[in-house]
Amino acid sequence: xxxxxxxxxxxxxxxxxxxxxxxxxxxxxxxxxxxxxxxxxxxxxxxxxxxxxxxxxxxxxxxxxxxxxxxxxxxxxxxxxxxxxxxxxxxxxxxxxxxxxxxxxxxxxxxxxxxxxxxxxxxxxxxxxxxxxxxxxxxxxxxxxxxxxxxxxxxxxxxxxxxxxxxxxxxxxxxxxxxxxxxxxxxxxxxxxxxxxxxxxxxxxxxxxxxxxxxxxxxxxxxxxxxxxxxxxxxxxxxxxxxxxxxxxxxxxxxxxxxxxxxxxxxxxxxxxxxxxxxxxxxxxxxxxxxxxxxxxxxxxxxxxxxxxxxxxxxxxxxxxxxxxxxxxxxxxxxxxxxxxxxxxxxxxxxxxxxxxxxxxxxxxxxxxxxxxxxxxxxxxxxxxxxxxxxxxxxxxxxxxxxxxxxxxxxxxxxxxxxxxxxxxxxxxxxxxxxxxxxxxxxxxxxxxxxxxxxxxxxxxxxxxxxxxxxxxxxxxxxxxxxxxxxxxxxxxxxxxxxxxxxxxxxxxxxxxxxxxxxxxxx
Length: 523
Ligand code: C2O
Ligand code: CU
What we know:
CATH architecture of the largest domain: Sandwich
Bound molecules: CU-O-CU linkage, copper (II) ion
Shape: globular
Helix content: under 10%
């Protein structure tokens, strides 16, 4: 297969890449573990559904499908397992795909058929969700909706076509496993794209705590025991919560009242922030030559942290949001919520530059280095001046013509009200936690609108599986949209992919504490 020319790929440590190989169809084993017993924190799998779905059905082995004649097949195996990982100083025992954080980069071309076998070596059931891909429902990786969780020592094979080019990713959809090291980037190349850049880098940002005394399950248990929905209405406890911290809200932007425009910084304090699995003291380094044009694919894989991202001494041109082309937009810094992706193009200067992701409303930062020349490397706490200015929000972007949904009146408008429970760590959509809220119902062929309100003091990244939506007004195509505190917006999508789909806040703790809802098709 032909690969775009890439100069200055990240060093192997930075992000391991597994190149796709073209294979013939092969028969895959898939002894399917029975499983269950995911523990009290796997609301996804154990919450009884209003109509009884949570108690069944069981799904059995993966729903097989076949590539079309002539369709290229990309085969991979992912092995979620416990491993010891060096984050560039802190060495942690954690849960990863393979033995690195992030997991292996999966690369394909739009139209390819992916066959990905997951061998679960974790001490718990798991699944893999393919975030942002408009795939067939049975391959979506949501336990209780599209499959049974993959039991310990069991295997499961996901088979689906990747229809659209773009920057995507994968992660488990069980409990708070995502806040361990279980995530990886999935890049789908556009066979028609001219390219026009000299190098391409994948930059994955994360907030890290696993293996340093607390697990994500401990953290969720603590939040539930603490009983605060920090950003919820009436629940403004700041106990144990780091607001601002050194560096303050630099670059984050304030609203008219002088409140940070994105509200509170999250529910969880993290000891580390990572770019491509490295702490700032021992950063990932990207190398290139001065004057080269680089495409940077940025993914926020964090569980509880929005970041402002900037490259010291450079302007960045945003070219894609969640895989979809936008009218190129030049910025100094951008805000990226959990689950979001942005593709950027930059022309590099001469020297060594800090690429910094500053956690919104929290102390610390993630850092990588871009090296095109000599000089002394910026320190671990280097703060690009670009972060002093306002960071771009998605609402400033305009979709490229080719990314627009064809104009059409909505056939149905459904409410999507996000709130925080009072007096308990519960997050809700439409007045109830997942399992107690009624599914959003559409019929195949409809143009559906979700009328979203955020009745809390925190920003929530709203994610919809299986579809990409257009933000009402701008028409920006996305699959994950940060809805600011007390904000409202609407999104529209074509109901063209029947099945049972999840929609939820991409804060892992919020989702697990109830901020999820099913999107179902009438049959
Ligand atoms: Cu990336 Cu349901 O999530
Ligand atoms: Cu949320």
